[in-house]
Write the structure tokens for this entry.
Amino acid sequence: MVVMGIEEGDEEQDKIEVRKVIDALVEEVKVEVEILGRIGKKGEKSRPIRIKLNDLVDKRREMFRAKNLRNVVGMERIYVVPDLTKVQQEEGRKLREEGIDHSTYVNG
């Protein structure tokens, strides 16, 4: 999974912020998360953070609830999306251009 919208910080700050996001989405259980690192080169914009959830049930729960972040104070501009390959991203882009809901085709 990829978390976007978290301000650039050091690794420890990233862990804290990702934990806040994960806990905001799933409050009822402690979800184990591994931070794989920032994606891309450091620049002016904050880079996305790639994370890994070992439990498929937790991952599905997080993805299903990700849209709810816009209703959490302080997390309105944070997004959680599947970690897709370049090919999957391109296929999704083409399907969106054709007006097809690609979310049923992507197994993220």
Notes: The mean pLDDT is 87. The beta strands are 2-4, 33-38, 49-53, 79-81. DSSP finds three helices and four strands in the chain.
